[in-house]
Design goal:
By secondary structure, this protein is mostly beta strands. It has no helices and eight strands. It is globular and about 35 Å long.
């Protein structure tokens, strides 16, 4: 499941939105999650089992990614649940 939520009004100057990616039952386990370039820096927070990078390495629980100038690919697992905070 993919959900986008807007920020609270008091955070709107810093946050453009919250993108949630969830696959708790593992319906898409082993499948790639692709994101397109976006003109924002991204704070990624894993709430469930950390997903894996394209090369199979697990991603950190929390990471601050710079401007997203290229496509990114992750692999979903059962219990995958993370949020990408799109920063302005």
């Amino acid at each position: 499941m993919f959900t986008i939520l807007p920020p609270d009004r008091c955070l709107a100057a810093l946050v453009q939105g919250y993108w949630f990616v969830e696959d708790l039952p593992g319906e898409y386990a082993g499948s790639n999650i692709r994101t397109s370039p976006v003109p924002h820096a991204v704070l990624s927070v894993n709430l469930g089992r950390p997903n894996a990078e394209e090369n199979g390495q697990l991603v950190p629980g929390v990471s601050l990614l710079g401007l997203q100038s290229q496509n990114r690919v992750w692999r979903s697992w059962s219990d995958t649940y993370f949020v990408m905070v799109m920063l302005t």
